[in-house]
Amino acid sequence: MTATLERYGFDAARTAFAGRTAVAACIAFIAGWALGLEHPQWSAMAVWAAAQPTRGQLLEKGFFRIAGTISGTLAGIALVLAMQIHPALLVLGLALWVGLCTAIGNLQRGFVAYGTVLAGYTAAMVSLLDAAHPEHVLHLGADRFATVLTGVVTAMVVGTVFAPPAARGALRARLAALVADLLEAAATPASDARAPALLAEMSAIEDGLDPHGAGSFRSRRDVRAVRSVLIAAMALLLWRRAAETLPAAVAAELLRAAQLLRADAPEAAAEALTRAAAGRPDLAETLAPLAAALHGWLRPETPPTETALPVVLHRDWIGAREAGLRAFGGLLLFGVIWQLTGWSAGAYMLLGLSVMLSLFSTFENPSAQMRNVFYGQILGVIGALACRWLAWPLAGSELQMILSTLPFILIGPLFVGHRRTVAASFDYNMVLMLMLQPHWPLSGSFEASLAAGLAVLAGPVAAMVAYRFVYPTSLRRRQDTLIAMMRRDLGDLAADPQALSHRQVWRARLYHRLLRLVRLSGRSARASAEAMEIGLALVGLGQAAMRAHEIGASGAPPARAARAVLARLARYPADPGRSSAALARLGTRLSGADAMLFAEAAAQITAPAVTGRAG
């Protein structure tokens, strides 16, 4: 059976998961109607939105969906009440609320971000769909919450029966293999050629961590412990790129630690790292955090030691601000048009736009995603029109209307399972339910249904234009923004008089941003190589700035030159030439690894890619 499905382009596991979800959506739809809810189709939408492949993810997404629905419903009720003072307050308040939720959601990660942006467009759902009857807003808010609760509970019950727990063994083995490879590379002369592959594997592991942390506090501690290992391993990778050949005894301990990790003995590996650090004091600052991170990985419930590096995650403040302003401006513009023209289907258009400009702003490339969204919504509109005007007229009661809708829901798994339609499948399932509110006897006209469908389709079109021309969002621009933030970090680090006491925080932030930068550019070999070169150069400059702080605080003869370096770097990249000269002068007054560090920094800082200037 599996081979037959795959031959026709279907993924068997994904089709089976979607089939279970569709059945759960049907159950929630019927249950919502049986409970007397006014919008039982929202229960089916909640099932599709909450469904996840593992129990932990299902529980966490369900929790944040309920939390986001509560806060969004309260905001929607407040907006409708404000509308009775003046209609413009509905549009202005909705634009402000969705913009704020979008900005905050872009600073968060995982299902927390989902719950935040959900709160934004839930307010749109409550305030727009029944704006003509503000006296019913409390009933609508209660109905919205009850339908979501029905759908989430149904999804959890079905998911608990069928969804497996998260597979932790695979992550553990992958991380152990990575650190073992890194230790072997550090112990081997002329191993720099392995650095790009190791860095790419680090970024891939880090990018997939959030789903593993879903569902429990223990899972979150596990993920935090893994991130600590990755950040500490990054320090070793960067040290190895600039280090000379290790003594035989130290290299032997590193190789022994690698063997112990492959044998699933991380605690013994940490002890081997401690012995290696004792044989090479200048390596202790790098190996001690890695040994501490491995101990913490074994016992994530224990507090971190003083030598462990903190986990400081990258937050895209620039992208968050732009996403919030884009959502605010888009909703305000089309909301004013709706108010001035009185377009009857304008509420559907605003509702779709609130989802497109908030939820999809958290995607890496929302502009490209809009094309798939548009195709999926076309399928959803066609399905809804076919159900409403071909199937429902044959029904003799509201129950028969419900039952005649189920085949259209059960078509969804076919779209999810096939490789050509999977990208558009979610929007088919959601738009189908959004447009189908069962009410007996039937009323309305085909023209009104078609107008509502066209209004729904206008949402992704308007969002596509916004993503293309208002703070254009793409993988390349996210990458450029991240590089700009790393450049700013370098200047802030040089200017920070307390940098030595904040040393671990600065390092952890730069390391995580480097991992994120590599991941964003991973789809293109050329872009990945360029990102690695720029990111590693900026992190190297950060190491040089930190070493300059140490020399400047020591009072040694080169202290004045070190302070001059920091003064130049604080104005980087406005004057990279003078920064380079200051770094080179300091390098000539030092010897050994320090001389190499500042000489390399002096050469890198004037590169056009590093400064952000055209060559």
TrEMBL record:
GO terms for molecular function: transmembrane transporter activity. It is found in: Cell membrane. It comes from the Bacteria. Keywords: Cell membrane, Membrane, Transmembrane, Transmembrane helix, Transport. It is a multi-pass membrane protein. PANTHER family: MULTIDRUG RESISTANCE PROTEIN MDTO, P-HYDROXYBENZOIC ACID EFFLUX PUMP SUBUNIT-RELATED. This is FUSC family protein.
